[in-house]
């Protein structure tokens, strides 16, 4: 018996001015601990009235979707890119209306990394934690899911499988500034 299809999932900023829609199953639900995500999270959290980005253990809860399955339904003009370096291929998109971190876009990739806190409905359970070698000193992670020191083969296979299903394309996300 096959799994039922996923209903479209909505992601919105805290005030509701920016709304994304994700169709289909996510690629993976993961928590990331890389140093750059922690630094970016701290910077975004310093914006006026910003919502939390980092979890108490320094990780960031993410749900990854194929770019061809995400579109901005409203408020795309309110999204602002934050990059750790001006030439970085990774940009964190923040809704300027309420300083809600919406998603991380690896511009050279085929997936969009949506902050779990922005998703309005249920998502599959957390599957893994990655880049745990970079977690803050003293943080002990539970063993409820696999904890990987780096990006694991399982993680990369999921990304590659999604890319193959997309015909190895890297589309732009509808309604999101380039």
Task: Give a brief description.
It is built from 2 helices and 10 strands, in the order βββαβββββββα. The chain has about 180 residues and is α+β, with helices and mostly antiparallel strands.
Q: What can you see in these coordinates?
A:
This protein is of the alpha+beta class. The protein is 13% helix and 28% strand. The chain contains two helices and ten strands. It has helices at 35-45, 153-165, and strands spanning 9-12, 19-22, 28-32, 60-66, 70-74, 79-82, 90-95, 100-106, 111-115, 128-130. It has a seven-stranded mixed beta sheet. A hairpin with a 4-residue loop joins strand 8 and strand 9 (111-115). The termini are far apart. The mean pLDDT is 94.
Q: H/E order of the elements?
A: EEEHEEEEEEEH
The largest beta-sheet arranges its strands as: 6-7-8-9-4-3-10
Strand segment tally? 10
Classify the beta-strand content into a percent band: 25-35%
Count of helices?
A: 2
Instruction: Quote the distance from N terminus to C terminus.
Output: 41 Å
The profile of the biggest β sheet is: 7 strands, mixed
* SS-derived structural category: alpha+beta
Gyration radius over CA: 16 Å
Shape: globular
Poorly predicted runs: none
Write the layout of secondary structure elements.
Layout: E1 9-12, E2 19-22, E3 28-32, H1 35-45, E4 60-66, E5 70-74, E6 79-82, E7 90-95, E8 100-106, E9 111-115, E10 128-130, H2 153-165
Parallel strand pairs: 3-10
Antiparallel strand pairs: 1-2, 2-5, 3-4, 4-9, 6-7, 7-8, 8-9
């Amino acid at each position: 018996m096959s799994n039922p299809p996923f209903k479209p999932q909505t992601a919105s900023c805290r005030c509701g001015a920016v709304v994304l829609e994700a169709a289909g199953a996510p690629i993976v639900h993961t928590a990331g601990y890389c140093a750059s995500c922690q630094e970016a999270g701290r910077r975004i959290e310093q914006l006026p009235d910003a919502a939390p980005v980092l979890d108490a253990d320094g990780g960031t809860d993410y749900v990854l979707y194929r770019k061809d399955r995400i579109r901005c339904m409203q408020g795309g003009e309110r999204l602002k890119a934050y990059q750790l370096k001006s030439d970085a291929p990774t940009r964190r998109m923040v809704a300027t209306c309420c300083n809600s971190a919406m998603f991380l876009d690896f511009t050279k990739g085929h997936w969009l990394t949506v902050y779990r806190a922005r998703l309005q409905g249920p998502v599959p359970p957390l599957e893994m934690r990655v880049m745990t070698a970079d977690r803050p000193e003293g943080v002990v992670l539970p063993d409820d899911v696999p904890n990987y020191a780096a990006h694991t083969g399982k993680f990369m296979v999921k990304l590659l499988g999604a890319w193959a299903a997309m015909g190895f394309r890297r589309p732009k996300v509808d309604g999101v500034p380039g």
